[in-house]
Amino acid sequence: MTTLAADHPGQAVPTSRWLTRVLAHQWVFTIWCMTAAFGAYACMYGFRKPFTAAGYLAAPFHDGMKSWLILAQVLGYTTSKFIGIKVIAEMTAARRVRMLLLLVGAAEVTLLLFAVAPPSAAFVCLFLNGLSLGMVFGLVLGFLEGRRMTEAFVAGLCASFIFADGFTKSAGAILLHAGVCERWMPVCAGGLFLLPLLGFVWMLRQIPPPTAADVAARAERAPMPPAARRAMRRRYAPGLLGIAVAYLLITVLRSIRADFAPEIWAALGTKIDPAIYTRSETWVALGVLGISSLLVLVRDNRRALFLGLGLATAGLGLIGVCLLGQSAGLIAPFPFMVMIGLGLYVPYVLVHATIFERLIAATRDRGNIGYLLYLADAFGYLGYVAVMVARNFLHLDGDVLVLFTLLGWLAAGGGLFALLGATVYFVSSRHILADAPASHRCLDEQQTNDQRFPGSQLPLAHRDP
Questions:
Q1: 25-452 CATH fold
Q2: pTM reported for the whole predicted model
Q3: In whole angstroms, how far apart are CA 85 and each of 233, 301, 377?
């Protein structure tokens, strides 16, 4: 753990012998990685989400302006996701930390401009804020993928944006209650998370590259040039399309739930206090973290892939059950929001932590899950932009709960159908390999090597017998 791997130039090792010895213990290393990922990404949310805790109804703002501000930020975030398809796929370890700090610093500057610039420029400021933050997830993910404990690590990372969505809104609400005005609240909230962010990024910097055993179990991860990205899209197009459609619907519903949480809680008849966002999302995060982390116990990559798809489908089914219960008056507001959040985030997180991770591990493709995630994320957020544009231009400013319920049924039905189609495709795919001794698989892998990497002489990583 004290030397750099040749395939990961620039990825640091622990900066002291004491830290090297401590991280040599697997349980310590696991907690370290989960804490670093959770903390770094949760702090990023402090630069993105607190502004949604405000209503922006008083001068210089006006009724309905919040929707336009959210749309501006999401449009920037979506643009960043499309840029990230290339940037994250080709990102090297040496550039991750520098890029991460640069992007978050730029986001805080945009919030300062939001506070001091004329109200007419507020939309531009939030567009640039979203543009700065859209690639942070992929940068953090790069430290974690391709390891035997990746599900646990990424579950911690994903739990951060579930928990932090509520926690950072609570922080924004507390600042508002303390007398901070709506224009200055976002930049003040970002300032609260700046120092903790630096500490967690330092922790990420200490994570060494995957070991030889990690590579044998999960396949080597490497930057993907354009030819490799095109080859992967062609090879798995039907399955990836099904996952992407489900992910798009889930992203739209998740974003509505996150960005209009105060309005949804109010429509459900709940008295809102700053802590309610944290309480509800903590329960959701714990449930999703437990489900996702358990999949690390499934060593067979093919079995884990299909188990992940099955659990994601079950999550969408839970959304339908919750909507039925709420319409019949059988579920109180708090458990409804928690259960609908669980049904949303189980498939959302499993795509991040298990489905794409195990797809690469089972096919032995030399690439990275950052590319697949940003491909899905880009179109998912584009769908949310479309919903927000339609809502604003068609003046659909009525009860947000009605829109949330409609989108919930669409996500439950359409997403379930799309995931079932993807599952059927991957079940029949000859590229999905069951884990077996390398001696039984080398011939099959060698025969498909040229198809996977046209013109490339890169060797495939094999599992130890």
A1: Growth Hormone; Chain: A; (1.20.1250)
A2: 0.79
A3: 12, 25, 9
